[in-house]
Write a structure and sequence with these properties.
Elements (H helix, E strand, L loop, with lengths): L3 E6 L5 H12 L13 E6 L21 E7 L10 H16 L5 E4 L3 E4 L2 E13 L2 E11 L16 H5 L5 H20 L3 H10 L8 E5 L2 E10 L5 E5 L4 E4 L5 E2 L3
Parallel strand pairs: 1-2
Antiparallel strand pairs: 2-3, 3-7, 4-5, 5-6, 6-7, 8-9, 8-12, 9-10, 10-11
């Protein structure tokens, strides 16, 4: 197993931003090589005031109630063209850890975690590239553990406590998640790309059947045909045509 160095912060604007600043100091502004920072570096915050999600979205969290952390790794064995594999690894690790506590946990493309039609976790991944490979990968994760009131305009948040009716040990969930992530990470190091992709596919939200979506042309019904190795979502329309989407080009609409 890869060693993990941990940094605990009582409060921070964003754990991803903290790691980014740490990298800049280590490399005096340059991209840091994998050899200079071996293993994993985990930054955990009790309070994150400006948590960032995908495409500039924010992540609401109540102090001391949830898990907000960033994991820095150096997967120089992963080609830049396959960086979505790291997203799949973390999504599956979060899913596996939460599935130990509650049923019906799935991965909503690209890497949100849903229980039923409610969101319990989100992930933001930022990679530094050197040549054709990845030098550094910062994986920021927010998981709703014990928060029961959400005040933002997020349409469908939930938490482990809301789902189960009891408080949960955040450290136990984190330990489980890290163990699962290390397993998937080792799969990548061993060249088991297809195993990672198939495991992700088996737990994909709306993997089967026709469902409602929205793109620039309006609402439509479609089924998921494939998630490509690049991370693109391919939807098959009712007429059989398949359309390929990048993130934010299509929305999932509640059935």
């Amino acid at each position: 197993m890869v060693s993990i160095s941990r940094i605990n912060l009582p409060t921070v604007d964003s754990t991803n931003s903290f790691v980014r600043e740490m990298l800049a100091e280590e490399g005096t502004g340059r991209v840091v090589s994998a050899s200079s920072l071996p293993g994993f570096t985990l930054v955990v915050a009790d309070d994150q005031t400006k948590g960032r999600g995908q495409q500039g979205n924010s992540w609401e969290t109540e102090r001391g109630k949830n898990l907000t952390f960033s994991l820095l790794c150096h997967p120089d064995f992963v080609p830049a063209s396959r960086q979505f594999l790291l997203s799949e690894c973390m999504a599956m690790a979060v899913r596996d850890a939460l599935a130990e506590q509650v049923e019906g946990v799935e991965v909503k493309w690209p890497n949100d975690i849903y229980v039923g039609d409610k969101k319990i976790s989100g992930t933001l991944i930022e990679c530094d590239l050197v040549g054709k490979n990845i030098a550094n990968c910062i994986i920021g994760v927010g998981i709703n553990i014990n928060q029961t009131v959400f005040r933002s305009d997020a349409p469908n948040p939930t938490s482990l406590q809301l789902l189960t009716g009891k408080e949960h040990d955040r450290e136990a969930v984190l330990a489980s998640l890290l163990s699962h992530f290390q397993t998937y990470y080792e799969w990548l190091a061993e060249g088991k790309e297809e195993e990672v992709r198939q495991t992700y596919w088996q737990h994909l939200y709306r993997r089967e059947g026709m469902h409602r979506y929205h793109d620039v042309r309006g609402d439509f019904m479609a089924e998921i045909a494939e998630v490509e190795p690049t991370g693109h979502l391919c939807l098959r329309f009712e007429d059989g045509n398949v359309v390929r989407y990048e993130f934010k080009e299509v929305q999932f609409i509640k059935d």
